[in-house]
Amino acid sequence: MTLTFLCIAAIAIDGDTLRCSGVGRVRLARIDAPELHGCPPRRRCAPGDARASQDNLARLIATGPVRCRVVDANPFQKGFQRTDRYGRPVARCSAGGADLGDAQIKDGFAQPWG
Description:
By secondary structure, this protein is of the alpha+beta class. 17% of the residues lie in helices and 28% in strands. It has helices spanning 50-61, 100-106, and strands at residues 4-7, 11-12, 17-20, 24-28, 31-32, 66-70, 90-95, 98-99, 111-112. Strands 1, 2, 3, 4, 6, 7 and 8 form a seven-stranded mixed beta sheet that branches. The protein has a two-stranded antiparallel ribbon with strand order 5-9. Strand 7 (90-95) and strand 8 (98-99) form a beta hairpin. It is globular, with a radius of gyration of 13 Å.
C-alpha cells in the first residue's frame, strides 16, 4: 500500500475505524472513540455513546470521497510504524474537505489520542 490512498466503499466500523475496499480496516490517527463492545478490563477507554460515534463517522464519510494518508502509528515510539498492534494501517483521512478525526473530536464523538 502506498502512503496515500482512496478509501473505496468506506464503511464506519466504529467511531475511529473504517473499512476500505481492497485495503481492509484503517484506524483513524490520533483519536480515540468509545468502544462498541465495552471497555476491556484494565484499559482506559474514551467515554461516550459508541453507536452515536459510529453513526457520526458514517455521516461524515458520506459527504464525499474518502482520501487517506498513512502516518506513524505511534509517534511516541522510535521509528515509523505503518500499522498499529492489530495490523491496521493508521491514517489521517478526509471526506468533503474535512479531516475525519478532527471532525469526530469537534463533534464530541471522540477524544484526542495520546
